[in-house]
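In line with agreed milestones, work has continued on tokenised descriptions of protein folds. One protein thus recorded appears below exactly as we store it:

>
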Amino acid sequence: MTSFEPTKKIVANLIDPEEIRIAILDERGKLYDFFVERMLEHQRTGEIYKARVDSVLPGMHSAFLNLGDGRNGFLYLDDVHGIDVKPGIEMLVQVVKNARKGKGARVSPRISLAGRYMVLIPDGHETGVSKRIEDNDERARLRSISKEIRPDGFGIIIRTVAESCDKESLENDVQDLLAQWETIKHNAEKNGAPCLIHKDLGLLERVLRDDLTEDIDEIVVDTEEDRDNIQSFAERFFPGKNIEINFYKGKTPIFDVYNIENQLLELQDRKVWLSSGAYLVIDQTEALTVIDVNTGKFVGSKNLNDTIFKTNMEAAEEIARQLRLRAIGGIIVVDFIDMDTEESNHELIHELQELFRNDRCKARVYGVTGLGLVEITRKRARTDIRAALSHGCPFCGGLGLVPREESIAMQIKRFIRKITMSSRSEALLVEAYSSIAGYIAETFLASWEEEFDKKIFIRGCPEFSWGKFRLDAQGSLVQIEHRINALQKREGWAVVHKSSSA
């Protein structure tokens, strides 16, 4: 990689194990990709189960499988070959699509194990090379190597990051995956159905495996232990590359330092402003996502057609970015501003196709419909950002969105950390909306007190809006207890939570 090529950096907020967040920034410091995973949530994609068939639905050509955790997996019978699927039989299946909006996780008996450079497919026979590797000579070289190293009875698909990779690294990846498969088979043989057989890597490991590419030149983390783990990973997979791996020790939260928090807030807005003054409106529904393009404040040149064309081209670039950042999949319909010529429409469609070419989630642009709309489909690979950070508002019947309890709880924890960095107070009294206060008290308060070495009280305030919180008082334990007593005498109904260890 030459020095003038754009570079990216990974910024990992790992200090709070309840919610870990990883951002990839481009050379301008703009958010390029974002990942979040919570301790209390169960990520399914990639997991392998020894499942039991509960029921078969011939009319839907599908079956429901008991995965052993209280939920069923949904299996399309078209995915099954050589197995007579009927109630009671046991099958080894892998989750290929997470459960969402009341729909069970989709499972498949076709197992695939992802390594750094390749995907190994037990009971397969194919050899393939990622379509995103476009150089014909490199594709031929990798295909030749894959045929040499492919074990009997397995298929191999070479991943994009394997471009320019040597044969020895590919062989090591194969051996690692074969060992993993032997462990899976052993666990499946000794355990009865239904049960979990294999979990995929954690978020940090998955991002390093899938996203630590040649254009990443720096990784910044806020925990020393993870810095050391990443160093070991980089030395193994990038022995000749000098990746700067830094441990951030500052008092200001790491996502504030890199202006990531503000960019995440913007990701939850319907309206997205473009640099020209035009804007997008993004609306997600159960069936599809609709994006509207508006000229807004952009007046452009004196030529109206030229203004519209420039707006649409700028919007196309931002749409590709927003779909990636928001992890939006499924059907997307874009209402670009109408253009007069077919040539302009063709140029716009070509630009969109080029923008999606390097998208890790397979996307297809279908062209302009008779109504002047552009249809796009994009593979849904993970929970979209809206569902990850928010849920339907309990105050408006789901018509609007508010931050999730977990998200507010973590905002409050970061707020408390800021206070403790500059204060020697023995105790704190924090106020938040009533149900948020109760949730924190039940789920996190004891561990936070241990982590910050302070006594923390949280008061439920029904008059607060959903996401509002503030510091009421800090000081000695005696002072805070006097403050609480005064509040309860004055208001009578004041509910103040404290940890069970008090």
Notes: The first helix runs from residue 136 to 149. The radius of gyration is 26 Å. The chain has a mean pLDDT of 90. The chain has 13 helices and 27 strands.
